[in-house]
Amino acid sequence: MKTEGKSGWLLLLMSLLVMGLSATMSSASFGDQYHRGRRKTMLPDEATSSLGLNRAASSIVLPVHGNVYPIGSYNVTLNIGQPPKPYFLDPDTGSDLTWLQCDAPCVRCTEAPHPFYRPNNDLVVCKDPLCEALHAPGSHKCDNPEQCDYEVEYADGGSSLGVLVRDSFLLNFTNGNQQTTRLALGCGYDQLPGSSYHPIDGVLGLGKGKSSIVSQLSNQGLVRHVIGHCLSGRGGGFFFLGDGLYDSSRVVWTPMSPDYTKHYSPGLAELIVGGKSTGFRNLVMVFDSGSSYTYLNSQAYQFLTSWLKRELTGKPLKEALDDRTLPLCWKGRKPFKNVRDVKTYFKPLALRFASGRKDTTQFELPPEAYLIISSKGNVCLGILNGGEVGLQNSNIIGDISMQDKMVIYDNEKQMIGWGPGNCDQLPKSRSFSFW
Known about the structure:
By secondary structure, the chain is mainly beta. It is built from five helices and 25 strands.
């Protein structure tokens, strides 16, 4: 880093702080103390044109570390900067902007696995379309024309303030190529931890907007505008950017809803319990890798918990009121080691999507997709009351319900797909069998 570039950067940021300049801040709508806290405010949905691009027939695979329980968070590693340095990022399909805790200098930063990112002096200017995409319509003001300021607030009360920069990302593709490309990311120099804080270097935004990493890579012709993930029930798994890693004919597909364009949403779903309809047919569902658990609105949640309690009457299970791992837990005659020990007591659930069409698709939820075994050896319900965390009528399909499934978000075809996956093996190409 050149001395004069560093000096100019420091003066710019210190001037920003002294003058109290800030970008428009929006409030996130999802999450609570059980949420990982990296769920970012949804930004305006920006369509990405794919006309005329000659994309490489390859993808980027990012191994995942972490689990739903007991860690309660996931991370992937990206190598950023010159020379490239590794950073652990929380992959979030519910947010667009990728950012790192940044020594620019850092005013307030939280504990992180690696030294804070040191930015170069390649600032994204305020009038850049990527900067405009980070602000709600009508709220984008350029008090500092030479830089793009952002401020985001997390669902758990955490927040990040910073500026947008461009830097080098060292990427490994499944066709064997390694390539360095410049992408925009946030330099977060002022962070407040939320209630569900986990030490992390930053966030990998995988949403639908123009500023997301997959959108930028797609615009550069490096991958198709497709992302996906396969989270193992044993912990770990992988995310991927681009296509070519799955046989589309073996995937169950449903359209993304045109009514909920800011989220990966198939629209309305019907809740099925034990193979029977519950009468809840208008559940607005969102697939969200930024949420460890699944959420239903208050009415559906109350129905489900009442139904479960009736189903468990006479079974060798009773509520474990002393276990506060999750709101509802049960204990047996002896501690359970895994969900297989209790499968016979719990029936499968499902979400049936119709979207106003004659044909329907169904997202299956076997007991492994909605139960955990706590550290006390009790079985706990991993479906939570969204009404208690401000979700109102929205419902979330969280990581617990997407385990051991390949889940795909095809932004070009506007489809969401899923199928069983061997999430313990990293795929290399479509010819690599993971089903």
